[in-house]
Hints:
Blueprint: E1 2-11, E2 19-29, E3 34-38, H1 45-53, E4 60-65, E5 68-69, H2 75-78, E6 82-85, H3 99-107, H4 121-132, H5 151-162, E7 169-173, H6 181-198, E8 201-205, H7 209-214, E9 218-223, E10 226-231, H8 233-237
Parallel strand pairs: 3-8, 3-9, 6-7, 7-8
Antiparallel strand pairs: 1-2, 1-4, 4-5, 9-10
Amino acid sequence: MIELTHIHKQFNKGKASEVTALNDVSLHVQKGEFVVLIGSNGSGKTTLLNIIAGAETPSEGTVCFDRQNVTGLPEYRRSRWIARVFQNPLSGTAPDLSILDNFRLASLRTEKKGLSIGVNEAFRKKVRERVATLGMGLENKVDLPMGALSGGQRQALTLLMSVMDHTEILLLDEPTAALDPRSARLIMETADQLIRDFNLTTIFITHNLKDAHGYGSRLIQMAEGKVERDLDTAAKSRLAVTDLFDWFN
Length: 249
């Protein structure tokens, strides 16, 4: 599904401030695999997600989806496959638009653009049914501005929007870091269920020990721009939460 081959990424190349963010990273993620990505700050985790999403172009190496080379494909073109949820609940949504309009914008990501992009009753019903699955009572408030909601509510809705239509790859960049423990738990439970329901290929960055241990089918530790450890389901299941403590430092 996702294949990265000999990825290098330097910033400020050729200058005194040159930084190597990724150093010869090769990685294959199978369809439906849920990969948890951990490591200290500056280890290359977010740069790796940016390379996959198309927000950054590798200095060297190739990126393929389903054996199709997308290395030079811009981020907006890759959005037909990829949805991304960021750390900040304010990212990824339009705060002045209603919940319903935000869902409509999200659905257009994978559709051909025509003359009509409005909301009809069928779409309103679809959104209300999806939102009702969260158990937050927001299905009767879809005309509220997105900016009027709490951080946890916005992240939960962003997750739903990410799988609105035909998404294959879900990138989760510390989606619970800015949330209180109760909201964080809801987001992870929601994400886990959606990943299972839609068989999404997922890469999840976290600094939370329990989440790193409890979620995902594969665990990858990055350090200094390289893959330091890569554990499959069986190896990951043998770890205790305390075993991961040093992996973040």
